[in-house]
C-alpha cells in the first residue's frame, strides 16, 4: 500500500486565512483611525467654539497649577469660580495675594505677616475683603505706618504655614507674624510624622496631563464646571436662582438664602465635618487626637523659637468653628487647651470666639448653609479684634 502525496491545499488555505485576518485587521484599523480622526476633529471644533463663542478657558481652575514655588503665580489675576461664591485673586510680583511690596520694608514701617489656611487666604472674597487687607486699612486709619502681607494659601495646616514662613516669610523680615488656627488643622496633619511635618517642601510636583487638560483647555474647563454645577448645589451658589434672606445688597453675591437658620446650619455643619473638625469639637479627645495635637504644638513651639531668633513677635489667633459661634453649648475644649499651651510657651493668644458670638447674634458671619468660611463681615470682625490686640500691645 502506497502513502498519498502531500496535498498543496494546506499552505493555500493557510495563506488565504492569513489574508482574511490581515484584511480584517486593516479594515478595523482604518475604521478606528477614521473614528479617531472624526473624534479629534469634533473635539477641535468644540474646543474652538468654546474659545471663540464663549471665551473659555476662563481660568476657573488655574489655581490648581503652580508655576513656581511662590504662593500663587506672580503678577496674576485668577478668577476663582470653583466654589460657593465667585471671586478674584490678584497677586503681586512675589506671588502674595495683595498689593506690591518691597523686599525690605521702608524705614519706620511695621511689617505684619499673616499666616493661615483658606480663612486667612480669603476664600470666596476679593482681595480687599480678606482679613489681612481689612486689618491694614484699620491700622492705617488709626495712624499706624504698617503693611500687612497675606502669606496664606488655602489648604494644609501648620506644616505648610511653617514652610511658607521659612521660605517666603522670614526673608521679608516681618516684625509680627500672625498665625491663625482653624479646627480642621488637626485633621490635616494626622497621617504624617513630626519630622515630615517640620521639613515640608513647598516645591510643586510636576503637573499631570489631567491637570493640564483641566486648566489649559476650554473643553476640559467647561466639562468640569458643568459637572460640578450638576453634582453640588453649593458650587457657584450665588449664580443659582432663589430667594435671599432680605433686601439685595450692592454686592449680591452674599445674599444667600438660609444664612439666618443658625440652628439648622449648626446641625448641617456637625454632620458635614464629623470626621474632620469634629475630631476636636467634642471632648474628651481620643488618644489619637491627643497625639496629633502634640505634633501641632511641637511645630508651633519650633515656629515660635524661629520667630524669636529673628526678633519677630508670633501672635496666635484662635478662629472658632461655625458650631462654636452659633451653639452656646458647644465644647471649647480645644480652644482652652491651645490657650494654655500658648501661655506655657509665652505666645500671645487672641481668641475670636466671644467677638464672633457677640457680633453674630442674629447676623450671618459665615457663608452657611452653602459653605462655612467667613463672609466679608466675619472677616471684618476678625480684622478688628486682631487690630485692637496689636494696638494694645504697641500702646495705642
Q: Give the C-alpha Rg.
A: 28 Å
DSSP summary: helix tally: 15
Rounded mean pLDDT is 87
CATH class membership of the domain at 101-204 and 253-394: Alpha Beta
CATH superfamily of the domain at 101-204 and 253-394: SGNH hydrolase
Approximate shape: elongated
The helix-strand sequence is HEEEHHEHEHHHHHHHEHHEHH
Q: Specify the helix fraction band.
A: 40-55%
* CATH topology-level name of the domain at 101-204 and 253-394: Rossmann fold
- Strand content bin: 5-15%
- The CATH architecture of the domain at 101-204 and 253-394 would be 3-Layer(aba) Sandwich
Helix/strand-derived class?
alpha/beta
Strand order of the largest sheet: 4-3-5-6-7
Q: What characterizes the major β-sheet?
A: 5 strands, parallel
Give a concise summary.
The protein is of the alpha/beta class and 396 residues long. The protein is built from 15 helices and 7 strands.
Lay out the secondary structure.
Elements: H1 9-54, E1 77-80, E2 87-90, E3 110-115, H2 118-121, H3 131-141, E4 146-150, H4 158-169, E5 176-181, H5 185-188, H6 194-198, H7 209-216, H8 218-231, H9 262-272, H10 278-281, H11 287-309, E6 313-318, H12 322-326, H13 333-344, E7 349-351, H14 353-359, H15 376-394
